[in-house]
Every structure is written in structure tokens, then in C-alpha cells.
Amino acid sequence: MAPGPLCGVTVVALEQAVSAPLCTRVLSDLGARVIKVENPDGGDSARHIDDVVGGLAAHFVWANRGKQSVALDLKSETGMTVLHRLLDRADVLVSNLTPGTTAKLGLAPDDLATRHPGLIAAEIDGYGPGGPLSHKRAYDLLVQAESGVCAITGHPGAPAKPGPPIADASTGLYTALSIVALLYAGERRGERGGAVTVSMFDTMTELMGYPLTYTRHAGGWQQPLGMSSPAVAPYGAYRTADGHTVVLGTTNDREWQRLARELLERPDLAADDRLRTNPGRVHHRDLLDTEIGAWCARHDLADVQRRADESGIGNSRYNTPDDVLHHPHLAARDRWRHIDTPAGPVPALLPPPVIAGYDPPMGAVPALGEHTGQVLAELGRTEAEPRGGT
To answer: What are phi and psi of 207, to 5 degrees?
Structure first.
């Protein structure tokens, strides 16, 4: 198979929790070598969130496969010396430490540009520099709340956090994309280096683009509707005769006409002037939900989905995480692999990009400090110095 797109690229990571670890895992999936520098005293805090994967934390197993763990005490002079030796050989440094930490360590972008001019410095922070919140710690829920995401999730009067860590994950993906862009630009120019900072708050306000634009011009925000959309109708979840939940969605007037005439067999609804356009259907959402809900309640899930497919109406089944673990679509497309961990092999999903001729390495999840000796040997140092001692 062809080598990965980032084969030959070395990434050093000073990372905790999810945003930076997911960024570097993406780079690893694309073929980069990722050296994860961890505090010898406990390592990445995500290692200790839970112990459900044979004693390992699910968050850590998800976001850290394919990396090499090196234990260094960055509070010591020797530890910092080793880190700078690593950076001399690296292409990229990714960090998401607490506010002000990289500056205290002498690893701010200006410092790195002077000492390691060929290095791409990518830093993830909470709120970006120069604002009244810049000093604050930032976790996924905190940023989702601050950026308005929770206000448009859940139900009116009952805001909710979206289940996946979308602030962490989206910020990590934006950072990985920026790093790939800088690597590409460096190849074209024939020179390496550059710096990028991506804040979680900026990422989430970007993802809030539609709600913010609507609110600015409408004078108020659309209230959350649980498993529905305040922007279009009909679009929601309905119980079926056999106790399942089907999700049906339309995004334009033509789809609504097909849903009404072909799926519901209700030409009267299709001809109703109140429902002719999406704004009218949004206004009369309760009427639509009542009629569609009553029709779904008379049919089994398989029948609803078959007839919706035949009519060209978007539909899906509401699944729980346990359902997705056994999802036939994942099985039919061979999306599961096994990766090694300190607790033994565990299943893991392939990364989303399918690149012709390339199999993602799906490397092992490292134990804390597992690769310290190997990496120190490459630097000409000894196993006696993993903690940065003198």
C-alpha cells in the first residue's frame, strides 16, 4: 500500500484531554509520527477519566492510538533540554496547555520561531488572546455554554449539552487542517515553519454561524426542539407501530409534496396553502407533527422506511450507542478494526477519510512513558533520564 500522506512528518505533542489529542490522532492516521510528551506523574489527565477499557479510560483510548509516549519532567532543565532536542528534529509542535503555560516554558510562537525556525507551532487555547476571557480554563461544556450552543440544544427552558464533545473535536479538526495547510505551503515555498492558534470559543462561534445570523436579523433566536429543527418542517422523530422511532426530514417544498402525496397519501395536505412553503410549515409545525405522528403510529418501522425510500424522503432510525456498536452498515463496510492497548486488543473504528491505496496504520494506544527509552536513544541519551533528572 502507498505510504500515508504525512509519512516522514514528525509531530511533538504537549496535550491533555481531547482537542489536541484528537488533532494529533488525525495526523497519526494520515501517517505522521506523533511523539506525545507526558508528565511522568500521571501523564495526560484523560488517562484517568474512567477505567472501563480493561482499566484504561475510554477517552484516552479513542484519542491516542498510534502515538509514542515519552515521559519528561518539563519543570526540570534536563527535561526541557530533551524537549528542545526533540523539537530540533520535529516538523510540528501541537499544544493545548493551560493559559500562559507555553509562554512560561519558553514555547510561545515567537520563542519557537527564534529557536526552531523550521517548526510549525500549533497551539489550541480556550478563548484566544486579547479578550476578557483569555485567562480562563476552557473545557468542552464550558465553551459550548459560553458560545450559545447549549441554548439551541435540548428543549425550551431545558438547555442541553450536545452529547459528543463537539467543541473539543471541532477545534482539534480545525487545527489538524491548519497544520496540513502549513505543511503544504511549506513544501510549495521550499521552507518550513509557521504558527497557528485555534481557540475553542472561536471554533464554536463559527459553528454557530447560522443561529447567530438568524438571531441578528430576526431579532430573536429559534428555540430548540429536541430531535427536530427549528429551521425546517416537517423534520423530526415519530414513534412507529412496533415501538421504534423513525426520523423523517424534508428540506424543500418538492420533498414536502412527495411526503404528503406519496408517503402519507394526503393530497389535501399537499394542497393546503398554509403548508405550501417552508415558513408556513414551520408556523404550523404542530399540525404536521400530529398528522405525521398519527400515520407513523399505524405502520412498523420497516414499512415506514421502505415507503419513505420509495418516495425519496430522507429517513433514519433512532439508535442508541449500543445499537451503533452492532450497526449492520458498519459491519457490511468493514469499518471495525482491532488496535493494541496496554490492556490488550480492543475494537476501534477506521478514521473517516478513505484514501485510495492507503490503509491507516491504526497503531497501538501507548502506556505512559512506553517509548521514552527508544526516543531518548535516538537523541543519544540514556534510559536513566526519562524523568528529566540531572
So the answer is: -70, -20
